[in-house]
Amino acid sequence: MQSKGVQPAVIAVVGSAMMDLTAYADVLPEPGQTLAGQLFTTGFGGKGANQAVMAAHCGAQVHFIGKLGDDVFGSAIAENFVKVGIDSQFVETSSTPNGVAHIWVDGNGENRIIIIPGANHEIEISKAVEAINSIAGLSVVVAQCEIKQEVTLAAFKAAKLRGCTTVLNPAPYQEISAELLALCDWIIPNETEFRELHGELPTSDEILKSFRPGKSSIVTLGSKGAVYVSPDGQLHRVSAPQVSAVDTTGAGDAFVGSFAYGLASGKDPVEAMKLGIAIASLSVTRKGAQSSYPDQTEIATLS
Ligand code: RIB
Were 257 and a residue from 35, 55, 106, 269 both cysteine, which residue would form a disulfide, CB within 3.0 to 4.6 Å? Predict the structure, then answer.
C-alpha cells in the first residue's frame, strides 16, 4: 500500500486483455466425450489486464497499453478499467473481435486454457513506444507473451532508454529473442516456462543459478511459493501458505502484478515477493482471474 513519503508506484503494462469464458467441471472430458459441468462464468481476464488490475488494487498508478475489440467484450473491459482506476488513454480499439480465453477448470482447481488473441495482436509498435515515452514518472514496465513480441521489444527498448525497470512474464511460453531477453531486468516464469526457456525444470540450486547469471529472475512454484535468483547468484525462497485451491486461473498474474507494484514502490525484492505470494495464494481460493483478486482493503490486512 502506498504511504506518505514513499515514491509513487507508476507502472505501464503493455499486454493483453481477454474475456474469460470459463466452464467448471469436476472431471474434464476426454476427446469425443460430452460431460455436464457445474458452472459457467464470464469474467475479465488476459494476462496483461490481470496484472494491471492487480497492481492497481495494490495502490499503483497503472497505465494499460493495449487493444480491445470494438464489441461488447471490449466495451465491458474498457468500463472495468475505468472502475478499477486504470489509465486507458493508450488503449485503442479494433474492428477485429476482442481477445477471448476459453477455460476449463477441474475439481482440483487446475485449468486448461485456449486463447484467441483477436485485437490483442493488433497493438501498433509506434503507439506502444509513444505511450512509454509519454507517461510521467514511469518506473516499471511489465509485459507477457499474449501480444506480438515485436511490440514488447520496442516497448522495452523505449523503457530502458528512459531508465525504467522491465519485467517480462514469459507466459504463455514462446521462443524469446536474445535481443528481448537482454532488455529484461526481471524474468518471471513458472516451472513449465522455466523448463521451456532453460531446457530443464528448476529442480536444483545449480540449475536455478545457471538460468541468467548476473540478472534477476523469479521462478514461481505454485503451492510451493517462489524462488528469487539475484544477480550475484543468491537464492531467496519464499514459501506459500497452505490453502484449499478452487481455481488457479490468474494466480501467476496476481503474483506478477503485486510484485511489480512492490518494485515500483521501492520495496526490497524479497518483500515484494512476499506480498505477491500472499495475494496469489488468496486468489486461488476463489473462482476466476480478476474476480479472485483482493481489493485494497483486503490487501491491507495481509501486510
Ligand atoms: O493467466 C490467466 C489468464 O490467461 C486468463 O485470465 C486468460 O485470459 C488467459 O489469458
Answer: 55
